[in-house]
User: Fold these one by one.
Assistant:
Number 1:
Amino acid sequence: MTAIVVLDAGLLTTVQDLGRFGWQQHGVPVSGAMDVWALRAANRLVGNDERSAALEITLAGPALRFDGPGVIAVTGGDLGARLQGRPMPPWQSVGVPSGTDLTFSGARDGMRAYLGVAGGIDVPLVLGSRSTLTRSRLGGYMGRALAAGDRVPVGGGATPPASAGLRLPRTIIPAYGHFHTLRVVMGPQDDAFTEEGIRNFLSEVYTLAPQSDRVGCRLTGPRIGHRRGADIVSDGTAFGTVQVSGDGMPIVLMADRGTTGGYTKIATVASVDLPRLAQAAPGDRVRFVQVGVDEAQALLRAARAQLERIGPEEAWIAPAAGIFEEDSGAPLAAPAYAELADALTMARGPAAARANAVCAAMPGLVVSVAVGAGDMVAAGQPLMVLEAMKMQNPVRAPRRGRIGRVLVAPGAQVESGAALVELDDPETRRD
């Protein structure tokens, strides 16, 4: 395999590795994978150095074609990976022949998947990293998210040679769900908050806001009060820093965070729990639990030890042949995720009990509508565009059919699961 051909880019697909370290003093963000554990696992499953670059796939996956034979693995969130239309088992290395298509049917559990390819994604190094920082058009594939027609280069091979059929046992594969307990180390400015503010932070439940992105996860919930205001002299930030702005709402800084910040920092999320937050979807709930530095470090060492064991020589990684006939990700899916998964495939949603309704994957603004009642549409054809999470996301037809009714207009604000259009069978006509 020398390249991956992008047939459809999906919502947001970028090249990421472990990040761009050593440049923060010059104002360059670290970037890198949001879910570092899943990226490392994908690379190890296909025989790469775990620092190799892979593709980070957000929520609505792309359609990709491999131009030659190779070994791949998809880890992280279960977005319904399919090879040649058949379910592909997650967290497993799979051999693919030349011309194989990889598609994604829709999110079941988690927000971000990682595609590891034997040999790694071979884009140029920029300041020591292949990670993409889209805001600065730095690194990755031409400094941007992938687009249809791109040919993403693949390296010359893994060392040691990649082996298909390695998989993680179910017992250590994450199940993300929609309620996330995040362990935090308090400080460095926890003394800037009132007793009530700290009590709220450690005892109340917060909700992930739609404005969250790779820069930070914005949360809403009970106010975290300051003693003397939110502003401080700007100082350094870390992956997982919890800033509290003037409105008393916490923001967890993520991979594309700025190098410094001028809001008080009440705590830092333990590194071991950052992958869970990276997989959280808007509307998910979050609770913070205080731990000490020693405990946080011990938890991270234990997680790293699991990764160190991934390799062909380990008996506990059971062999598995080819592609599963059944969707092996289904038992891991949180039942509550059905609404989001349906929205990206053949959603039903609470606003319409009909099986033919295509629904919104998350709260958003209808930017444009591309179809009208009676129009014939092909599978994958854009129906409308929703703005959510600071991105414009095309809503595509899950199958061939005829538009029965369009239920929203441009400018409408819709909730998660709201019915957008009715997609009838091609032969169906409405008077």
Note: The first helix runs from residue 36 to 45.
Number 2:
Amino acid sequence: MSGEATAGKDAVPATRAGRLPAALTLPRALCGNAARNLALWSRALAPGARRAPTPPSARKALAGAALAIAATLAAMWLVDRQAADWARHLPRGVGSAFATITKAGLSGWYLYPLGIAALCLAMAIPPSLPRLPRGVLAAVASRCLFLFWAIAAPGLFSTVVKRVIGRARPLLDVNDNPFTYMPFSWRPDYASLPSGHATTAASVAVAFGALWPRARPVLWLYALVIMASRVVVMAHHPSDVVAGAAVGIAGAALVRRFFAARGLVFRARDLKPYPAPSLRRIGRALAALCGSGLASCRSENSRKRAIEADHEAL
């Protein structure tokens, strides 16, 4: 009797010990997939990765930079003061409406979904998945990563530069002087140049437009509305918006070239996107992924039952 009780006591921890690793199998597998895929993607995007030549752009870049600087300076001298005075006398309802509209220019609306989607794909794609569905899901992940960095990189640059320049926002109304600066102040009310919302809106238009050219008219309409809203709510001068748009356009274009040089998302010779996987192929790849997961779960359940049977036999 006492021997049976002792055996029963010994069997409970043994059974629990067999269940504990089984419960940790899925999180461990997901973390392993994420580590493996993120390492692969990082090597593909590393500065030392194999690169292909892209079309020359030095002259266009210099001309664009000169045009952006000239337009920013012209707006500072000719438009900024009048625009602030105009926005100050708008009806309150107009300001309230644009205060709601301008929130659509926050980068978080894009960076969080894109980052989460890429991370979920990194966790979900196992090395055992067949080559075709793995390639389809990797193509989707590479597009998510391109859009993420095309928006995040110029946005980060704009965030740092505007705090270094330290230009006062129109809301402060410092003697109606648009040339009030407090460099290196790192204060939100002295972070007007360039406009972060304009940077985000322009980078969204360039990045999404590079993948879906037919959507460019709608994307640029969205960008122009966001840029106008920053002037209406007196968060930025027109020159801030021009500078922010230039940063967004240049940043997204550079990220596009960066990916194209590594043979990702775009062709290096003409910067045009590779054909995207169709929704049908993506659906089949997800079905194959689910099937692979179910097969793994069945295998794990069979192993778990065998372990429990061995413990019960003991």
Note: Residues 1-18 have pLDDT under 50 and may be disordered.
